[in-house]
Amino acid sequence: MADKDLTVPGSGPTTPVQQRWVDLGAGVY
Question: Over the stretch 1-29, which tens digit does the pLDDT of each residue have?
Fold first, then answer.
């Protein structure tokens, strides 16, 4: 559900740490 928000930069987290999490989350989720 949140993967969409995380996949879109700007709408979600803008921190480098979170960006990496998005990459990992996108693969996990």
Answer: 455 555 555 555 556 677 777 777 666 54
User: Could you tell me the pTM of the whole model?
Assistant: 0.24
9 Rama class: left (phi>0) / alpha (psi -120 to 50) / beta: beta
Domain segments of the chain as ranges: 1-29
DSSP string of 1-29, one letter each residue? --HHHHHSTTTS--SHHHHHHHHHHHHH-
- Let me know: does 7 contact 29? Beta carbons within 8 Å: no
Distance of CA 28 to the CA centre of its chain: 11
